[in-house]
Design brief:
The protein is α+β, with helices and mostly antiparallel strands. It has seven helices and 16 strands. The chain is 36% helix and 22% strand. The protein has a seven-stranded antiparallel beta sheet with strand order 12-11-10-5-14-3-16. Helix 3 runs parallel beside helix 5. It starts with 13 loop residues before the first strand and ends with a helix. About 9% of the residues have low confidence.
């Protein structure tokens, strides 16, 4: 016979009760899916009150669950939006990489250039490139005519033969340019083919410049060492000249030169002086549609020059560290002045002085969009402020004109690279 159940008083004071029936009926009405909740109830507690307490707890739990569910749904929507953005950006990046790979030789992406301290400009359009090539060919023809005249005066049969050979090469180049124009009009050139074609033509031009320069060396004995000019026919990152000596520490300076250019937009950088830790210690630049500017320790002053008309112009810029006072002269006349240009900052020594290119690093980091296009001569530097009379003497090619006491214009002071050429200076000859 089974034993009788123990009386309630014999049970412990706390009982662990399961309430499935209560939650399944009145206490859990409206909660949806049934949940089992374990709770501790003292012996002397009225069990009729338990369903009410359990119902309050369940209602609170239900509210918490709904709030969490809403939060999860919001986070899910945010994640989906981010995923769509990521997919869109990934697609754009893929297209950019594909285009870059197609433009690079051999289908490989080329490494990016050095940091550009002057900002970026887009590559010149094909029409501008063709115009530059046409100007270069015309300049080569002019130089060959001068050589021919020189050869006749000296009865040099060898010079005449070389002239004929070079003339034939120029004719071939003209045919290549015309062929390139036709191909561009018909849309045959892609970015890669255009780059290769441009490289071939520039390589041939560089070779021609070198051959003509070799011929012109025969004229050096018949001219003073300062009667020469530098020619930068194309906007490249490899044509430049470097002054052999550095600038000293200067608390004032005057920089003067002759220039001729018709480049657009902007004639580029006639000269730049960089020192360790500062690529823009002293820079003269005209880039894009901006006016010509002079930079001292990265501080800028706009200069009122109007000189890109294809004619020779003489320009001077003077500066003193006291209050940063500067003056600008064009063709012997003062055209502008100002102050607070890098006041009390001396020009630092032990740098690199380059003609025709803007330096982004010490002695390098050239950007073709900032290259000087044109001709340059009589670049002189003084460590003092010139008087208006001294500037005028320089601009009129007076016999009283002074040479720079820091940098004097002489062939022995300058090295030329990349096809930039030296030949007889013509501006003062025209004035005289």
């Amino acid at each position: 016979m089974a034993p009788a159940p123990a009386p309630a008083a014999a049970l412990p004071r706390s009982l662990l009760l399961l309430l499935p029936l209560l939650l399944a009926r009145g206490c859990a009405q409206g909660l949806g899916q049934t949940r089992f909740i374990c709770t501790s109830v003292p012996v002397d507690v009225d069990m009729c009150a338990a369903p009410t307490q359990g119902g309050d707890a369940a209602e609170e739990l239900r509210g918490t669950v709904l709030q969490l569910r809403e939060t999860v749904l919001q986070q899910k929507e945010t994640i989906l939006r981010h995923q769509d953005t990521i997919r869109e950006l990934t697609a754009k990046l893929g297209r950019c990489e594909s285009q870059s790979a197609a433009e690079a030789p051999g289908g490989r992406r080329q490494p990016g250039p050095a940091k550009n301290t002057m900002g970026d400009l887009s590559r010149p359009p094909a029409a501008e490139t063709l115009s530059q090539l046409g100007q270069t060919l015309q300049a080569l023809k002019t130089r060959l005519e001068n050589l021919e005249h020189f050869s006749r005066l000296n009865a040099s049969g060898q010079g005449s033969n070389l002239k004929d050979i070079l003339q034939n090469k120029i004719d071939d180049l003209e045919k290549q340019v015309l062929s390139r124009v036709n191909s561009l009009e018909e849309g045959k050139f892609g970015p890669r083919n255009e780059s290769e074609e441009r490289g071939k033509i520039e390589s041939t031009l560089t070779s021609l410049h070198q051959r003509i320069s070799d011929l012109e060396k025969g004229q050096k004995d018949n001219r003073p060492t300062d009667r020469f000019q530098l020619t930068f026919p194309l906007r490249t990152n490899y044509m430049y000249a470097k002054v052999k000596k550095s600038l000293p520490e200067m608390y004032a300076f005057s920089v003067c030169m002759w220039m001729k250019s018709s480049a657009s937009p902007g004639m580029g950088t006639p000269f730049s002086y960089a020192v360790p830790g500062q690529a823009n210690e002293l820079v003269l630049i005209e880039w894009g549609n901006n006016p010509m500017e002079i930079l001292i320790n990265d501080k800028v002053a706009k200069l009122p020059f109007v000189i890109n008309d294809g004619k020779w112009h003489h320009i001077c810029v003077t500066w003193t560290t006291r209050d940063g006072v500067w003056e600008a002269y064009q063709d012997g006349t003062q055209t502008g002045s100002g102050e607070n240009l890098a006041p009390y900052h001396p020009i630092k020594p032990q740098g690199v002085l380059v003609l025709g290119q803007e330096q982004d690093t010490l002695g390098g980091g050239f950007d073709a969009t900032q290259a000087f296009v044109g001709e340059l001569a009589h670049f002189n530097v003084w460590d003092r402020k010139l008087s208006p009379g001294e500037v005028y003497a320089l601009a009129t090619c007076s016999s009283k004109a002074l040479a720079g006491n820091v940098i004097a214009w002489a062939e022995g002071n300058i090295d030329v690279y990349g096809g930039a050429t030296k030949w007889t200076f013509e501006a003062c000859r025209q004035l005289n």
